[in-house]
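Researcher: Quick test of sequence recovery. Tokens follow.
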């Protein structure tokens, strides 16, 4: 299966400006659901179809708050042993395909899917280990806002997002994932230890 050189940028939430630009034909690795939803949000708001494969615990309510349109989202929580074929088929109909791989993926399998992404003008977001990613996004540390001394509830999360692309120096940004208004934005005032709960 031979891929083409076609590639185009997809809409993204403004907080990712200067940090990462999603492009069709590429694969991106992430380590947590917050990053999955943040990357899905931009294309979904712009009218693109999305698909989520193998993530039975994918938070639908949280995805909506991030900006993902569930009316244009295909969910396959348990694709079974043929999950790679399911992913390949969804690349034909969705612009953004998210997969949480239940088993290791070989270099050959990843290369075939990359070829298909280029042919179908789509993006793959791998939630977990995946070979041949164009960029890998991780949350290095985060702080939650909203808890007091024995009272309150979590309302916002500040996270240091790191993007690694090949051998290039990593890029980082401190952003809300999300803020108290459920928006994904860059942080202007970092939380102090008195107002934050640190998690790794």
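Model:
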């Amino acid at each position: 299966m031979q891929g083409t050189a076609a590639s185009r940028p997809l809409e993204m939430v403004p907080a990712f400006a200067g940090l990462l630009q999603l492009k069709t034909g590429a694969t991106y690795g992430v380590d947590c659901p917050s990053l999955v939803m943040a990357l899905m949000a931009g294309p979904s708001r712009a009218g693109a179809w999305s698909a989520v494969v193998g993530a039975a615990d994918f938070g639908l309510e949280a995805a909506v708050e991030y900006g993902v349109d569930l009316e244009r989202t295909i969910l396959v929580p348990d694709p079974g042993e043929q999950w790679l074929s399911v992913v390949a088929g969804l690349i034909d109909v969705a612009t953004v395909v998210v997969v949480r791989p239940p088993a290791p993926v070989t270099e050959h399998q990843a290369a075939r899917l990359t070829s298909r992404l280029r042919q179908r003008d789509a993006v793959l977001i791998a939630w977990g280990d995946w070979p041949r990613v164009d960029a890998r996004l991780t949350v290095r540390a985060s702080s939650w806002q909203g808890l007091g001394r024995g009272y309150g509830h979590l309302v916002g999360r500040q996270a240091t997002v790191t993007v690694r692309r090949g051998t290039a120096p990593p890029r980082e940004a401190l952003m809300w994932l999300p803020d108290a208004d459920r928006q994904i934005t860059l942080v202007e005032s970092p939380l102090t230890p008195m107002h934050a709960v640190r998690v790794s």
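Residues 136-199 form one domain.
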